[in-house]
Amino acid sequence: QVQLVESGGGLVQPGGSLRLSCAASGSIRSAAAMGWYRQAPGKQRELVAIITSGGSTNYADSVKGRFTISRDNAKNTLYLQMNSLKPDDTAVYYCNAQFYRPYWGQGTQVTVSS
């Protein structure tokens, strides 16, 4: 059984930066892919970024050029570096890991306020 715990969220001004972390209880080397999703109040959950076991990445158009997804297999940790943050980035951010079935973390709140 896999547990995922997100951290690093908080309050930041527009144009600021945050780095989110997702710590996994097991080896993330076995995951076919890992990703970050977000959900704003009253809106659908959306994919932000994914990274495969082979290192390929994909980003939502709204975050391309601003966010970077990465992982540290030795530390069993997934990261999301967020730069040039905008108020529209405000959401709860969730970590996802795809094994035989998807696993989800509890989420971490990111608030970008002007």
Describe this structure in words.
The chain is built from no helices and 11 strands. It has strands spanning 4-7, 10-12, 18-24, 33-39, 46-52, 57-59, 67-72, 77-82, 91-98, 102-104, 108-112. The chain is mainly beta and 114 residues long. The mean pLDDT is 95. Strands 2, 4, 5, 6, 9, 10 and 11 form a 7-stranded mixed beta sheet that branches. It has a 4-stranded antiparallel beta sheet with strand order 1-3-8-7, with no helix packed on it. The chain is globular.
Q: Brief description of this entry?
A:
This protein is an all-beta fold.
Annotate the secondary structure layout.
Layout: E1 4-7, E2 10-12, E3 18-24, E4 33-39, E5 46-52, E6 57-59, E7 67-72, E8 77-82, E9 91-98, E10 102-104, E11 108-112
Rg computed from alpha carbons, rounded to a whole number of angstroms: 13 Å
Oligomer classification: single chain
Query: How far is the N terminus from the C terminus?
Result: 41 Å
Largest sheet: 7 strands, mixed
The fraction of residues assigned to DSSP E strands is over 45%
Helix and strand composition category: mainly beta
Count of runs of 4 or more consecutive helical residues? 0
Overall geometric form: globular
Query: What are the segments in which pLDDT stays under 50 over at least 5 consecutive residues?
Result: none
Q: Work out the number of β strands.
A: 11
Q: What is the element string, with H for helices and E for strands?
A: EEEEEEEEEEE
Mean pLDDT: 95
Helix content: under 10%
